[in-house]
Write a structure and sequence with these properties.
single chain; alpha/beta; Rossmann fold; two-stranded antiparallel sheet; 9 strands
């Protein structure tokens, strides 16, 4: 978990297993020695599988999705789809709010469009993604909604530092698209994590 000291603003990366999930906890900042309060994590309600639901994710993997989309109509469509897929969806209106939420919560899915927050949101959020610890970054599937590229443009996806790109004209197929992108993301890191375990690095 990423925690920021309220006194000296030092950013701390605390291993999840060292923080109790069911109760509030407090520890001293290693830099300024002031107390840092960490609230208990709220338990998520179990999500029932629906017929035809596209992901076989565990409850832990299906925690949160963050929607960073400027156009209200598009935002509504995206929000509705990911809620139907079983995610605990949240939507934000600007980059500051998005980065603040990402500082204290893990989002397995982040969807952002190129116009978000007067076009500065994409650069700021992708930049933030590129600086976080890789063990955390691997848990986040970042999807870009862009009219500049075709859906599933692999080269553009790579150069944009995202996990998938969808064109706005294909939003009607968002559920199928996310099914593919999330499954590929999960399977890729499943193999990666298994390789780490076999080599004794995990």
């Amino acid at each position: 978990m990423n925690v920021t000291c309220p006194n000296c603003k030092t950013k701390l990366n605390i291993p999840d297993h060292k923080i109790p999930k069911d109760k509030d906890t407090t520890f001293k900042c290693p830099k300024c020695k002031e107390k840092v309060h960490v609230p208990a994590v709220k338990k998520q309600k179990p999500v029932k599988e629906k017929p035809g639901q596209i992901l076989n994710l565990s409850l832990e993997e299906r925690l949160n999705a963050l929607v960073c989309i400027e156009d209200q109509d598009l935002k509504g469509k995206v929000y509705s789809v990911i809620k139907q897929m079983g995610f605990n969806a949240e939507a934000v209106t600007n980059t500051k709010a998005a980065l603040n939420k990402m500082e204290y919560h893990i989002y397995h899915l982040v969807i952002i469009d190129e116009a978000f927050d007067q076009k500065k949101g994409v650069l700021d959020i992708i930049s933030r993604m590129n600086t976080i610890d890789m063990s955390l970054r691997r848990r986040i599937c970042l999807v870009l909604v862009s009219s500049k590229f075709k859906t599933n443009d692999n080269m553009a996806t790579l150069h944009s530092s995202v996990n998938g790109i969808i064109h706005p004209d294909d939003i009607t197929h968002l559920e199928a698209f996310l099914s593919q992108v999330l499954s590929e993301h999960k399977n890729f890191y499943m193999v990666y994590n298994e390789s780490l375990k076999k080599s004794g690095k995990a």
